[in-house]
Amino acid sequence: MDRTESDGPRPRRPSRPRPVKQTPLGKPRAVPPPHPWWEWRPSWAPPGTLRWLVFLALVALCFLGYDWFRLSSIGSSRYVGQGWKFPTCVYADWKDFRAGDLLSSSTLQRLLARAHYQRIVKRPTDPGRYRVNGPVFEIYMRAFTYPDRVEHGSPVTVRLQNGRVESLGNGFGTAEGRGLLRIDPELLGEFADPARERRSYVPLSRLPRHLVLATIASEDRRFYHHWGLDLLGMGRATMRNVAARTVVEGGSTITQQLVKNLFLSHERSFWRKFHEAFLAVLVELRYSKDQILEFYLNQIYLGQRGSWSVCGVEEASLYYFNKHVQELTVPEAALLVGIIPAPNRISPYRDPEAAIARRNEVLQDMVEAGYISKQDARRYRRTQQRFAASPPPATLAPYFVDYVRETLSKDIPESELSGRGFTIFTTLDSGLQEEGEKILRNGVRDADWRSPSGGAERDPAQGALLAIEPSTGNIRAMIGGRSYAESPFNRAVDSRRQPGSAFKPFVYVTALDSYYSGRRPLLTAATVLEDMPDTFQTDLGPWAPRNFENSYAGRVTVARALARSLNVATVHLA
């Protein structure tokens, strides 16, 4: 019979008893019922919706805190780690001149050329340039920090007369005197980490304004109007790329480029792009716009110089134009900014036409942004662009630079020596070093020519030179071998050998000092010595020294014995 509503409520089905599992001890234990799929959770996650939300919030907080902590690294210009590493620079000794010192016009020009000062016809208005007007040099000094003083970069007038410094003056055409002229020291070499990045940090206040404006106009025109992400710029770039059916414009801001180069890889993925945008916003919250722009211009990759990466506008300026960034003209600054998207593909050394075309595009960007006029842009486009020769960076005095590195490594860890950007000043005289290298090359060539069994091809002669200033003990020149490329072994300091006749001058100096030390008998350069075969008793037994080629002079003066390096006479003197 069918059941109807009048039959009353349906009786409940009796519940089944829970299954019981026997334990090893025989006591029954209830097995918990299975959880529905919507209540599943990993074993390491906390249960409950609220706890899940708290857990996710902690994960997000840790993620945020980690990124915030990483961002603190770019706040220091001496950051060592995943970001910036600065090579340690080793400089030669500098030259100081005062009124009355010996200095010829040719010597001063040679010193300025070594320091990469540019000679011009007109009166210089920028650092790193000079002109010669008869006996008068007008030099615009560069800023440089020395151990004992700071050169802020100022005009200097030097008047020479009869091979001497007649007067030094502050400024051009003024009567104000100046006590010292100091020519910049020459860079001998650098210590770098395996990444080999050339970078010099320059504050934003010392960067030329036209370079900063060119960067903003070309790379991120709304830089001062967004918080790390430029949605309008991204939309505009997307429309242009769709219209061109290829990537013709990027939508990344300067802040996004900075965090990508410092912290992220260059892979194309959604996660990397999201993380880039997230970090860009954090950077904007933590640092000012000027700080971000300063970081960017000192960090950006701008080309390859041999095995070195050229990073930052200062090193790029030295690489492409052989001048410091403060000395860049507007067209030169526009070219540097123009090659930022692809510094190797549109390098002026690889494709000068493409580099000039990009320069002109940046100049047009500056016109559209209102930074320069159309007339100025046309004039800058007609400017003939000159580029510096681009040999890979060479190390001057490589044996000496290695010696400096070995000496410093006893007190400074290698990681800091290669990445902290120390400035090392040495006593080396670059002029004497160059002259010593010429002398050594001529000497070993002469030894090859005179050798009856050797020669340049079979057994080339080697040599070493070490010039020390007697009054101070300063090393003025050091050459450790014929060719550093063929043999980096430094024979000037690392070679262990008998001194031979090189020790004789010390014997003669000690003997001739008897007049001043009060010893007897008095010995002078005219004292007569015996120079005949003889045998001397020593603690190790009898010793019979011989002269070279068994040639003896009989009786000879001290002066002649030293000049001819006579062995037996020197032993009698000792």
Any chance you could write out the topology, listing elements then pairs?
Layout: E1 20-22, E2 28-30, H1 49-71, E3 88-91, E4 95-97, H2 105-114, E5 118-119, E6 129-133, E7 136-140, E8 144-145, E9 150-151, E10 155-161, E11 164-170, E12 181-183, E13 187-191, E14 197-198, H3 209-219, H4 231-244, H5 254-263, H6 270-286, H7 289-299, E15 301-305, E16 308-311, H8 313-321, H9 330-338, H10 352-368, H11 374-381, H12 398-408, H13 414-419, E17 423-425, H14 430-450, E18 465-468, E19 475-479, H15 504-512, H16 514-517, E20 528-531, E21 536-538, E22 541-543, E23 554-557, H17 558-564, H18 567-573
Parallel strand pairs: 3-17, 5-6, 14-16
Antiparallel strand pairs: 1-2, 3-13, 4-12, 6-7, 7-10, 8-9, 10-11, 15-16, 18-19, 20-23, 21-22
Overview of the structural elements:
By secondary structure, the chain is an alpha+beta fold. A five-stranded mixed β-sheet has the order 5-6-7-10-11, covered by helices on one side. Strands 13-3-17 form a three-stranded mixed β-sheet. A hairpin with a 4-residue loop joins β8 and β9 (150-151).
Tell me the structural class. Answer: alpha+beta
Indicate the overall shape.
elongated
Q: What is the CA–CA distance across the termini?
A: 143 Å
Largest sheet: 5 strands, mixed
Quaternary structure type: single chain
Q: Determine the strand fraction and express it as a percent band.
A: 15-25%
Strand order of the largest sheet: 5-6-7-10-11
The strand count comes to 23
The overall pLDDT average reads: 81
Tally of separate helices: 18
Percentage of residues in helical conformation = 25-40%
Gyration radius, rounded? 38 Å
Low-confidence stretches: 1-6, 75-82
